[in-house]
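Worked problem 6 (solution included).
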Amino acid sequence: MDIRKLDRDAVLETVRILERADPRDWDRPTPCADWTLGQLVAHMAGQHHGFAAAAAGNGGDLSAWRPRALGGEALRTYRAAADAVIDAFAPPSVTTREFALPEISTTFRFPASKAIGFHFLDQVVHGWDLARTLGVGLDLDEQTVETALALALRVPDDDRRTAPAAPFRPALPPAPGAPTLDLVLTALGRSPDWTPARAAP
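Solution. The predicted structure is:
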């Protein structure tokens, strides 16, 4: 298994989904509490640039991770961020590096495979966020989703998940016979049944 290929496929899937968005969609609510689609995509673009900086040895600067202003060219801005992280992870030599990920730890550096795994898991989950927000399907093969589940089950389910800025919420019980993607979501505190709240009449 090449985590870089799985990550690339997951990132490209987020681009494909966002190609379905129109200007009216950027203010839609998402499964990420208090974030509109535009705010979520700005966060994702910032993460792409942050991981690209980390792959180049410059991840320790927190400013590299800031959400990106989307401006009037939201899709173009996001696609450029996606291309940046795909290109940063592409060289074979990247697998021998250690990544500084200051949003996780300001003390430790992470082996490339683990760091890219963090990014990959985010892309699967945020890909679902985007798809559910826009009412479209998430097209990832079973190997990709099974790998995401293996990583999701390793994320500690402790008090850190209740912090205001926690990336994941406490795990939810899955439905009997739930598909693999639903197991990923519930392991990370997302409800597979999430739908946007209806506007008041």
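Discussion: The CA atoms of residues 1 and 147 lie 9 Å apart.
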